[in-house]
Amino acid sequence: MDPVTIETDRLLLRAFTSADTDAVHEACQDEDIQFYTPVPVPYRRTDAEKLIGETLPTQWAEDKDCTLGAFRKDTGALVGSYCLTLLSRGVWELGYWAVKEQRGQGFSVEAARALCDWGWTALDVHRIEWWAMVGNTGSRAVAEKLGFTVEGTLRNRSVANDGKPHDWWVGGLLRV
């Protein structure tokens, strides 16, 4: 599948390009992104280059992951990264991170809602899952505003970048 462009009132969601490398690199220096998401630590510029130049285009081409950067229409600033990742037939996972300076303004809800709406129509989706490490209250707040039902807590689900196992929340959003 080819990457798409999605427009909301305040945002433009589009595939990352090499011109976004510095913004992604800078965003991923944030301690919360490094703790709560599976980015390399330390996050080097070469990690952003590989992500944008190789990993994401391959995942789009293989119909495995649909990642878009969200950018403010008024300033062009990077808001964050939003993706739908194929887990199993008809089940996709919503994942996201937001630039620290862009948090708390409703951008993540706006971007994630637009991506999910696109997923319902463009992909064979009957369920979208959301996963977040317990303690990532910002991610949970976004998921709940989107209508996800928090379905449980998985004990020691995975090892984080700190080398320790952590509990995770899981939620689901069903096609209506």
UniProtKB/TrEMBL annotation:
Record-linked Gene3D superfamilies: 3.40.630.30
Residues covered by the N-acetyltransferase domain: 11-175
Keyword list, A-Z: Acyltransferase, Transferase
Pfam families, sorted: Acetyltransf_3
Homology family: Belongs to the acetyltransferase family. RimJ subfamily.
Protein's UniProt keywords contain Secreted: no
Protein name from the UniProt record: GNAT family N-acetyltransferase
Organism: Streptomyces yangpuensis
InterPro entries reported in the protein's UniProt record: Acyl_CoA_acyltransferase, GNAT_dom, N-acetyltransferase
